[in-house]
Amino acid sequence: MRSWVFLLFATLLIGCNTTPPDIILDGILEVPENRDDPDSRTLKLVYKVLKAKDTTSRKAPIAYLQGGPGAATLIMEGFWENHPLRKDRDIVLMDQRGTGASEANCTEIGDMLFAIMRQNLSVEDDFRATDSLLAECKETMKQNGVDLAGYNSRENAADFEDLRKALGYKKWNLFGGSYGSRLGLTMMRDFPNGVRSAVLTAILPPEANFLNNSIQNFENSLFSVLERCIKNEGCNKRYPDLKERLIKILKKLESDPLHFEFEGKPFVLNTHDAYLLLFVSLYDRYSISNIPLLIEAMENGETEPLRNALKGFEYIFNFINWPMNYSVMVYEEFPFNDLATMDQALNSSEIGFAYPPNSSTIKLLNNWHSFRATNIENQPVVSEIPILLTSGGLDHVTPISNAKGAIKHLKNGYELLFLDDAHNSLYNPCFYQIAEDFLNDPLHKPDMECSEVRKPIEWNLSNPLQ
């Protein structure tokens, strides 16, 4: 499992739902699994519509597009329940095909992948264990009649178009991030007549070759975070020489991993695990504030901060539906990335030694399925639909350059940047203020003045994790 890096968006924005049932519309949408196959079986996709608080409002609804790929959507009901954007707009939620309540497959695989991570396996043994687990899952899916060719953004976008029509909406506004931004751009490309506007964050356009650039994106973000700590008097005093210490401990963990108990079972933290912990910690500004503490904990063998960080990591393993994740990535990313470019980035990285071998990633992806996208899935989306593209200056998955490239082909696009945010911008009230202004008048640039107010990282200078 250490040989795969995934996209993720909004993993912790879950709340308890207290919405009265009379203002929620529940339903099941039946769609073909593979629209290219006339004999395709039917999928049942579960959706909910949180009706606008203002029952007299006629404003176009918001279709929320979850990230992952492979993350469930309906768990976001509590987040959207009392959200300001719901005041006068319906919020439409649907578990995407193969996720959550919409016929997810191999839902137990997350626990099994985490069990592999617990061990200090060699690269070869880690690959064999993961590949065997995925092969068993794939065989189960085959016996259940699952067609892996149907799990991609093109089919996903068509599902949402069918839902829009079924709900009777003339047009709607798209709202999503990370993989959700990729899905949103696909909907704008394939079904432009149904889209009024789009608010997308953590931009992943089709032309951005994620696998080729993932190592460099991660390193750029991580070193930028460490540099910010150096420039902060309190952080630098508490955690001096962070970059040198990071490289030293990552090398030490190669031959001398940490052994400790996690949730009553043994866990071995090696250099690849340390890399993944740092990767996950870069998703938002709150976990970023703990990165210096994690480096220190790995140095000193202080396992409590590591256990706390692993709790979130374990949650992620079970939050994502891996068959959906792999299927999308193999179909849309794998054909347009190459091992030579990935290895070049690995070899030029200062911490590339901590990154799992690219050859293992390529083998796992290649073994999953044989379906590959055509060139359209690697071309920029050209559109005149109004769109707001939001990026975080510390984003390690979808850097600012993604939005800057995409907006060149979006005639009515506006670019929004939060220099002190990371991959996840959903904690930022300024973002929602700008998003609401844009949704109310998408043909005019919204006032973005609040985005210029800097919000430095509030470093964790104590223990335990924040």
Automatic annotation (TrEMBL):
One GO CC term on file: cytoplasm
What's a Gene Ontology MF term here?
aminopeptidase activity
Q: Does the keyword Hydrolase apply?
A: yes
Gene Ontology biological process: proteolysis
Protein origin, superkingdom? Bacteria
Note whether Hydrolase occurs among the keywords.
Answer: yes
The residues covered by the AB hydrolase-1 domain are 64-210
Domain Peptidase S33 tripeptidyl aminopeptidase-like C-terminal: from-to ranges: 367-444
Keywords tagged on the record: Hydrolase
The record ties this protein, via Pfam families, to: Abhydrolase_1, Abhydrolase_4
UniProt name for this protein: Proline iminopeptidase
According to the entry, what is the taxonomic lineage of the organism? Bacteria, Pseudomonadati, Bacteroidota, Flavobacteriia, Flavobacteriales
